[in-house]
Write a structure and sequence with these properties.
With 298 residues, the chain is α+β, with helices and mostly antiparallel strands. It is built from seven helices and 15 strands. The protein is globular, with a radius of gyration of 19 Å.
């Protein structure tokens, strides 16, 4: 999935804890094999390869994941959309981009984007992309899905306290060895090498999306790597979005969606969802939060 995972298990039996950690690692590798669009043998690659040709039969697990992804798209009015993978690569963030793409190129890149086009058949568990060139990808929620599955497996093996940290997005449950809740540090987007706050959490995921690591700058404006699937342009107005939520898959997807929606619409969405909180850093260096969040500041 192009990121590092760190797994922590708390249990008096160190051998059992180690076994659970290795099992969780294996589970995440299995999920990677299932959802990777760069692996030509994966079911997701088959879905993309047969776009505009025929439906592809998939496992119930993958079918349900696609279905949940579409539900997030509906909830966010398309700010989250797994068909974003069908965009032409008009934006690059590897240092090679010398100028802004013109508007016609950007508009053309959107021609195959639209979660509403995905056709699901629940009886046959098939997924069909009806247009050639359509693709799906799970860059916005795949890490959360893997963390969810790894946590479930560790719980099944008797690990009642632990952390699955997916590229700096920890899913923590239970308590530390001294009985205290887990403490999760929050990166300062203005100075990413330091922390600005911390959260006391248990049975929660803390997921962050930001533009302070991958971006290009044109005419004094920073354009981050999070592309708005409705416009084809990078989302602007926010530097980072952090979601606190019991479900790592939902937290992962919502951090992307809120970044796209922006401050006003993003916070309005979060305040409508039970058991989900958020805090946002704006590009003018303001910190704004949802109604019930409790941050501890350094």
């Amino acid at each position: 999935m192009g990121c590092g995972f760190e797994i922590t298990a708390v249990h008096p039996d160190s051998l059992l804890a180690e076994e659970a950690i290795f099992a969780a690692e294996g589970e995440m590798r299995r999920i990677e094999k299932l959802i990777s669009d760069w692996d030509s043998t994966s079911l997701v690659s088959a879905i993309n390869r047969y776009a505009g040709i025929r439906p592809v039969k998939v496992t119930r697990e993958l079918f349900d994941f696609v279905h949940r992804s579409i539900k997030i798209s509906e909830l966010t009015d398309g700010a989250f959309d797994i068909t974003f993978a069908g965009m032409d690569k008009v934006w690059t963030f590897d240092g090679t981009m010398a100028q802004m793409p013109d508007s016609s190129t950007v508009q053309k890149s959107l021609r195959h984007v639209g979660y509403q086009k995905i056709i699901l058949n629940a009886v046959d568990t098939t997924v069909f992309l009806p247009e050639k060139g359509m693709k799906i990808g799970f860059g916005g929620n795949g890490q959360g899905f893997a963390a969810r599955k790894a946590k479930a497996l560790m719980l099944q093996k008797g690990i009642v306290s632990g952390v699955v940290n997916a590229s700096g997005e920890p899913t923590a449950w239970g308590v530390q060895t001294d009985g205290s809740p887990w403490r999760i540090g929050v990166t300062d987007p203005v100075a990413p090498d330091r922390l600005c706050a911390w959260l006391s959490v248990s049975d929660l995921t803390v997921a962050t999306s930001g533009n302070y690591e991958k971006f290009v700058t044109f005419n004094g404006i920073r354009y981050g790597h999070i592309i708005n699937p409705l416009t084809g342009y990078p989302s602007v107005g926010l530097t980072s979005v952090t979601i606190i939520c019991p479900d790592p898959e939902i937290a992962d997807a919502l951090s992307t969606a809120v970044f796209v929606l922006g401050e006003r619409e993003g916070l309005a969405l979060i305040d409508r969802i039970k058991s989900v909180e958020a805090f946002l850093y704006t590009t003018d260096k303001r910190l704004v939060t949802s109604k019930n969040i409790k941050l501890n500041y350094y």
